Amino acid sequence: MTSEMYAEIGRELETRGPHQPTEIVTLDADVLDVSTEGDKHWASVRFTGLVREDGEPQPKPIDEVWNLAKPVRGSSGWLLAGITQLA
C-alpha cells in the first residue's frame, strides 16, 4: 500500500479494541477503470461478497472499491492507494 494508506490504516488499527480475524465467505471482483495520469497507472476494482467479522455467526455483505496505483516506470508493483465503502 502507499505510505499515505499505510499511515491511515495504522491510525485505524490503533483505535480498535480486540479483533478476531475476518473470514471471507465469498468474493467477486470487477475492474471498473484503468487509466494513466502523469507518472502513474491507476486501477479501480470493485469487490463484493460476504464476510464474517468479529465472531459474528452470520456473514455480512461487503461492497467497496479499491483504488490501486503503479508507477509508469515500473519501480514497484500495484499499491493500494484508497478504499471507498459503497455499502
> Tell me, what's the shape?
globular
> What pattern of helices and strands is seen along the backbone?
HEEEE
Sequence stretches where pLDDT stays below 50 over 5 or more residues:
none
- Describe the largest sheet: 4 strands, antiparallel
Strand content: over 45%
> Helical residue percent?
10-25%
Spatial order of the strands in the main sheet? Answer: 1-2-3-4
Count of beta strands: 4
| Distance linking N and C termini | 22 Å
Query: DSSP helix count?
Result: 1
Q: Gyration radius, to the nearest Å?
A: 15 Å
Average predicted local confidence, pLDDT: 93
Describe this protein's structure.
- It is built from one helix and four strands, in the order αββββ.
- It has a four-stranded antiparallel β-sheet, with no helix packed on it.
- A hairpin with a 2-residue loop joins β1 and β2.
- The two termini are 22 Å apart.
- The mean pLDDT is 93.
